[in-house]
Amino acid sequence: MYLKTLHLKQFRNYQNQKVEFTAAKTILVGNNAQGKSNLLEAVELLATLRSHRMARDRDLIKEGESTAQIHGTLDRIHSHSDLTLTLRRHSRRSVAINGVTVPRQMDFLGVLNAVEFSSLDLELVRGSPEIRRNWLDTLLIQLEPVYAHILHQYHQVLRQRNAFLKRYVNTPEKSLQSELAIWDAQLVTAGTRVIIRRDRAIKRLSPIASAWHASISGASEVLEINYAANIPLEKTSPQELQAAFFAKLQQRAVAELHRGITLVGPHRDEVELIINQTPA
């Protein structure tokens, strides 16, 4: 599978630009601020529906325009695909495959796979745990498009549970036990699905990354990548993991009600990068 053409309309600094990729490798050369990164960002958006530079669709639309569109054609061994992403300044984006609008964006993911690397990726090592979680989630969405739905479900429950905790800050725990138990059950169900998939992805990635790092460092360094959940991962079954999740929530219940925020779950997990038994 390879990207054959890319057509940008009113995207970033492009008004109407079509690019054809005819060679096995393409190198973009040009002065600063001419749109090289913007073109690569468009490919990233088609692959992941995310931009590593901007969070809001309106920031991706050319100044003075109300919409932007990214269209790409893919060639596969036995098939051909057209992908279209339409961004709107004042309403929701939409996606289409072969000219047919796709109701669920998760069905758009995984058609085009891409790996994006930039100088900002140095923050994977130096930055906060949130950056590493976002990186892992973006990877997982390409490997398992259904993960986008799973992650969305978890964040939706997390927002609602946090709103509940904020509303009853410093309220005695016993008076809220029955209602909090409902949110706990939803958080545990959704959160366990996120944890299992993240941990599985890291276990697949770690030996590959370690082998490449050993090759680059001349075998002088040993790289380890671990998924450090704040819930014990030695539990082997989903049921045992859920039980451990519930137990941790009960342990932190008083602190959560005092602070008005959820303190347990995959939104607080870490991806550890270790070189020669020392944090990178």
Q: Could you name the key traits of this structure?
A:
280 residues; three-stranded antiparallel sheet; six-stranded antiparallel sheet; globular; Glutathione S-transferase Yfyf (Class Pi), Chain A, domain 2; Rossmann fold; 2 domains; single chain; alpha+beta
Task: Give your account of this protein's structure.
The radius of gyration is 22 Å and the shape is globular. The two termini are 35 Å apart. It is an alpha+beta fold. A hairpin with a 2-residue loop joins strand 1 and strand 2. Helix 4 (146-167) packs across helix 5 and helix 5 packs across helix 6. The mean pLDDT is 92. It contains 7 helices and 9 strands; from the N terminus they run ββαββββααααβααββ.
TL;DR of this structure?
The chain is built from 7 helices and 9 strands. The chain has about 280 residues and is of the alpha+beta class.
Radius of gyration: 22 Å
- Biggest sheet strand order reads 2-1-3-4-5-6
The end-to-end distance, rounded to whole angstroms, is 35 Å
Mean pLDDT: 92
Query: How would you classify the helix and strand content by structural class?
Result: alpha+beta
How many distinct helices? Answer: 7
| The first-level CATH class name of the largest domain | Mainly Alpha
- Fourth CATH level, the homologous superfamily of the largest domain: RecF/RecN/SMC, N-terminal domain
Largest sheet: 6 strands, antiparallel
- Morphology call: globular
H/E element sequence? EEHEEEEHHHHEHHEE
Strand content: 15-25%
CATH architecture title of the largest domain = Up-down Bundle
> Got a strand count?
9
Low-confidence stretches: none
**Do you know the CATH topology of the largest domain?**
Glutathione S-transferase Yfyf (Class Pi), Chain A, domain 2
**Structural domain tally:** 2
Q: Which percent range fits the helix content?
A: 40-55%
